[in-house]
Amino acid sequence: MDLTSDSAAPDAELETEEARAPDDESETQNPAGTTDEQPESPAEEETEEVEHEGKTYKIPKPLKGALLMQADYTRKTQEVAEQRKAIEQRQAAFAEEQKLLAEHLTEFGKVSALNDAIAQFEKADWPQIRASNPQLYNDLWFQYQQTKEQRDKAVTALQTKVAERSSKAQQESARRIEEARAAIQRDIPDWSPDLAGKLSQFAQGQGFTADELRQVTDPRLIKLLHAAWKGSQAQQKEAAQARAKPAEVAKPLPTVSGNTPAEKGLSDRLPVDEWIRRRNAQLAKQRGRR
After folding, report:
1. Distance, CA of 161 to CA of 108 (rounded, Å)
2. Does residue 131 contact residue 70 with C-beta atoms inside 8 Å?
3. Would you call 49 helix, strand, or coil by DSSP?
4. DSSP structure class, residue 31
5. What pLDDT digit, counting tens, does each position of 245-290 carry?
6. Based on the number of CB atoms within 10 Å of its own CB, is 120 exposed (0-12), middle (13-18) or buried (19 or more)?
7. 268: exposed, middle or buried (C-beta count within 10 Å: 0-12, 13-18, 19+)?
8. Residue 92: which residues within 8 A CB-CB, separation 6 or more?
9. What are residue 49's phi and psi, to 5 degrees?
10. Burial of 100 (0-12, 13-18, 19+ CB in 10 A)
11. Rounded Cα distance, 193 and 188, in Å
12. For the chain, which ranges sit under pLDDT 70?
């Protein structure tokens, strides 16, 4: 008997069956070629409400900082634009004032020269000139009258320009005051004549005069004054609270009069003499019962 062939056959058959046998464990765990793990759902993104231009929006939380930075940048840009506009307006007003001043200087010079010429005419000996040379007298008298007429016209023109300059200055001042009032009412919601009076009193208490305060038209200075006044009010309130607190702690507790006791029996709240009196009365009553 060939033992070699008989023993090899069963081994080969066993290997063939093992090769054909499916991996029960793998098929059970992953029959469709997929794993049992479920895909993770994306976490909900955190949001936060922010207010922008009077409306409320819900945005992702990481964007809040960027939106606030943008809003701050926009606000500062607007402030810079307003300041630039104010500077340009002041420069234009200054240039106009310089122009008017130059024109006024010319008119003043003209009036001054005409006054000097009139003074020379008035020093002349008119009777002597008339007696010695009537024609010269007539010519000089005519020039004298013309000079006075020119001087009067120059004075009228100067007065007119001064009045125009004053009117323009008043209009410009009124415009700046109106713009300042609008800016103050926008940035100080509780602005009122009463508050303006309080700020004026506060500023005068710091050394400013009423005339100096009337010349203030820059809203930034008024807002600074308002902030200083509010800070002073807060300090005064804190100081008053600090003074009142020790007084409340030191306030004595109410005591019960010995003549009209509010409690019956013995109590630790009674004065010493009243407690002893009641205790002696209790002991005497106990002895009497015996």
Report:
1. 11
2. no
3. strand
4. T
5. 765 555 555 554 545 545 677 777 778 788 888 888 888 888 877 6
6. exposed
7. exposed
8. none
9. -85, 135
10. middle
11. 12
12. 1-45, 52-54, 100, 246-263, 290
Cβ atoms of 180 and 222 within 8 Å: the answer is yes
Q: Measured on CA atoms in the order 189, 194, 198, 203, is the torsion positive or negative?
A: positive
Q: What is the predicted pLDDT for the residue at 32?
A: 46
CA end-to-end span of the chain, whole Å? 132
Contact between residue 137 and residue 126 where contact means Cβ atoms under 8 Å apart: yes
In whole angstroms, give the CA distance from residue 13 to residue 20.
11
Sequence ranges of the domains in the chain: 188-234
CB 67 within 8 A of CB 59: yes
In this predicted structure, what is the pLDDT of residue 4?
A: 40
DSSP for 183-207, written as a single string? HHHHH-TT--HHHHHHHHHHHHHTT
Helices (H), the chain: 3-20, 24-29, 62-123, 126-132, 134-187, 193-205, 210-214, 219-249, 272-289
Spatial CA neighbour of 143 closest among 127, 163, 120: 120
